[in-house]
Design goal:
2 domains, Ubiquitin-like (UB roll), five-stranded mixed sheet, 5 strands, alpha+beta, 159 residues, binds FE2/S2 (inorganic) cluster, DNA polymerase, domain 1
Length: 159
């Protein structure tokens, strides 16, 4: 065991863990952040996705010792009691079905919009490719992403 320092959603934490422990386990078990889920545990389904310094990563295959910079989880998206535009769009488009994969869908979409605020449909499809959904919500997820882009642009123009 050793003390590992992590910066998550704007707060610094120190955890006493085996450095090879997957980041996902530390987030869920030590920091009580249950947005990221356990699915395949093999880096293939995306349900454990978090953002590390702007890049969507699979926390199930990321040893906590390899974490650098700021981690953002689903819990870190809402600010000052206001949902992130993606979360709002998810509700308005009723994107989720069982919900299990939706952390991965939203966090992958967030990383996309942070680097490309006006993606084309093809760019959305390409970015979202690795976020798997057994309920087949792909079309509604894509609609929700387009919805968030429209709302964000409209809010920008209104300012
Ligand atoms: S649980 Fe991490 S990619 Fe499937
Ligand atoms: S909403 Fe059920 S797995 Fe995606």
């Amino acid at each position: 065991m050793s003390i590992v320092k992590l910066r998550v959603n704007g707060t610094t934490h120190e955890v006493d863990v085996d450095p090879s422990t997957p980041l996902l386990y530390v987030l869920r078990n030590d920091l009580d952040l249950h947005g990221p889920r356990f699915g395949c545990g093999l880096g293939q389904c995306g349900v454990c996705t978090v953002i590390m310094d702007g890049v969507a990563i699979r926390s199930c295959i990321t040893p906590v010792a390899a974490v650098r910079g700021e981690i953002t989880t689903l819990e870190g998206l809402a600010k000052n009691g206001k949902l992130h535009p993606l979360q709002q769009a998810w509700i308005e488009e009723q994107a989720a079905q069982c919900g299990y994969c939706q952390n991965g869908q939203i966090m992958t979409a967030k990383a996309l919009l942070d680097r490309n605020p006006n993606p084309t449909d093809a760019e959305i499809r390409e970015a979202m490719e690795g976020a798997l959904c057994r309920c087949m919500t792909y079309y509604r997820v894509q609609s929700a992403i387009r919805h968030a882009v429209r709302e964000t642009n409209a809010a920008g123009e209104a300012r």
